[in-house]
Specification:
The protein has 220 residues and is of the alpha/beta class. The chain has one domain: Metallo-beta-lactamase, Chain A, CATH 3.60.15. Strands 6-5-4-3-2-1-13 form a 7-stranded mixed sheet. It has a 6-stranded mixed sheet with strand order 7-8-9-10-11-12.
């Protein structure tokens, strides 16, 4: 499996960048998780990475904040009719993007080998993806807490521990990061995690820390 960071707050050389989050995953299925803020960023950065944004099997939205859904119109334009798994709300907007809305109301399977936490606090979901190395948990902003989202994904997927947790951790406390460290082999804080959180994981759990930025490619 490959995870390609189409946009993160931390820039990469040769890539366009803004405050947002989007990754493209390639494995048993090919999908995009969150879609940043602008189509131009997704188009440019995918081209630099040598990727096509076409031929996606489905899309996932973590939560309804613009820095996570602003680029979905180009996803729908290039992949008309694919499902977008999103927390409830804004179905009309999704259809205007050319995507089929699939509202996620509870934890369960999304696709083969892909599970959702369901929208914690009725607001934000994370997903778990089965890989040869174990379960990869992808989060958006982790407003409900990255440890809670990870636990929810582990529970629904049946895994005892994640291989990797990647995404925005929403300025977590040291205690939250300590709890997260018990749930996963590797930690890749991005987007709204904050430099303090990155430094904490790098310092206390150097064997677990993975640094990512716009343009990063993780082979799993």
């Amino acid at each position: 499996m490959r995870i390609l960071v189409l946009n993160d707050n931390t820039p990469g050389k040769g890539f366009l960048n803004d405050w947002g989050w989007s990754v493209l995953a390639e494995g048993k299925s090919r999908f995009i998780f969150d879609a940043d803020t602008k189509r131009e960023i997704l188009l440019h950065n995918s081209k630099v990475l040598g990727l096509s944004l076409q031929n996606l099997d489905f899309a996932v939205l973590s939560h309804w904040h613009y820095d996570h859904y602003g680029g979905f119109p180009i996803v729908g334009e290039l992949n008309p009719g694919i499902p977008l798994y999103a927390p409830p709300g804004n179905g009309t907007m999704v259809r205007q993007w050319g995507l089929r809305v699939r509202e996620v109301a509870k934890a369960g399977d999304l696709e083969a080998g892909v599970w959702t936490s369901g929208p914690l606090n009725g607001f934000e979901q994370a997903i778990g993806v089965e890989t040869p190395s174990g379960l990869v948990v992808i989060v958006g902003c982790s407003h409900p807490g990255v440890d809670g989202l990870t636990k929810a994904v582990l529970e629904v997927s049946g895994y005892g521990k994640a291989h990797l947790v990647i995404g925005g951790f929403h300025y977590p406390s040291a205690r939250t990061l300590d709890r997260l460290s018990e749930l996963t082999e590797f930690i890749a804080p991005a987007h709204c995690s904050g430099e303090d959180a990155k430094a904490y994981v790098r310092r206390k759990y150097p064997e677990k820390f993975i640094g990512v930025r716009t343009g990063s490619v993780l082979e799993i």
